[in-house]
Write a structure and sequence with these properties.
Length: 209
C-alpha cells in the first residue's frame, strides 16, 4: 500500500484499518509513505507490527526507485495506491504488467485536470471508490469505464459505534450543546461542498431567528 499524503484523515484511517485486517489474516502488508507523514507516526504508535517503508519526498524520482526496489524484493501480488503522486509512480508498474488498484475516497472536481484524468483512466487496473457518488463522478468527469470501478463503502465498527452511545463525551470536549445537529467534513475544500455547507448554515441561522 502507498500513500503520499503528509496529513491524517479518513483516507489514512481506512488504510490503517485495512492493513491491520489483512495482517490479522496472515497477509504480508507493506506500507510506503513519507518519512514525516502523520500516517508513519500513527502506524509506529498503534500498529508497530505493520512493516513501514519511507521516502523523503514523493515528488522526487527517487521515490519511484524506492518503490521499484521494494517491489523487486517483495514481489507483491497487489499494489494499492491512494494519493496523486504515489498513483503517478504506481502507473509505471501498471503499464509494466503489475496488478495495481487505486482507492478514491473523495469526490473529484467538476473540471478534472488532464493529468488526473490520465492517472484514473490509464494508471491502474481498477479503482475502489468509497461511495457511489464518487464512482459517478469518475465516470462522468474523468471518463473512467464504469466496469473498472468497484464501490466499497466506509462501513462502521458496531463495537465502537452503536445506538447505546449518547455522544455526550464528544459534545463536552468540543462544548457543543446537546440538541445541536452534527455532521462532519474532513478538510473544507471546495470540491467537498464547502459553499453548500455555508448556504445551509446561513439558512438555518435565518430560520432560528
Amino acid at each position: 500500500m502507498t500513500d503520499a499524503s503528509p496529513s491524517w484523515g479518513d483516507q489514512q484511517y481506512r488504510l490503517v484499518r485495512e492493513a491491520v485486517w489483512l495482517h490479522e489474516r496472515a497477509h504480508e502488508v507493506i506500507i510506503l509513505c513519507a518519512e514525516t507523514s502523520k500516517l508513519a507516526a500513527n502506524l509506529q504508535r498503534n500498529a508497530p507490527w505493520i512493516r513501514v517503508e519511507k521516502v523523503r519526498s514523493w515528488g522526487s524520482p527517487r521515490a519511484l526507485l524506492r518503490l521499484a526496489g521494494i517491489i523487486r524484493r517483495s514481489q507483491p501480488d497487489l499494489i494499492h495506491t491512494r494519493s496523486g503522486q504515489d498513483s503517478t509512480w504506481g502507473s509505471y508498474f501498471h503499464l509494466a504488467g503489475r496488478t495495481v488498484v487505486r482507492s478514491c475516497h473523495t469526490t473529484i472536481p467538476e473540471r478534472v485536470p488532464i493529468c488526473d484524468a490520465i492517472r484514473y483512466r490509464f494508471g491502474c487496473g481498477r479503482i475502489i471508490a468509497a461511495a457511489h457518488v464518487i464512482k459517478r463522478d469518475l465516470v462522468d468527469r474523468a471518463g473512467v469505464s464504469d466496469s473498472r470501478i468497484d464501490v466499497v463503502g466506509e462501513g462502521a465498527n458496531l463495537e465502537e459505534f452503536h445506538p447505546g452511545l449518547d455522544g455526550g463525551g464528544f459534545r463536552a470536549e468540543f462544548k457543543i450543546p446537546p440538541k445541536s445537529p452534527l455532521f462532519g467534513v474532513n478538510k473544507k475544500r471546495i470540491k467537498k461542498g464547502k459553499e453548500e455547507i455555508k448556504r445551509v448554515q446561513n439558512k438555518s441561522e435565518r430560520v432560528e431567528k
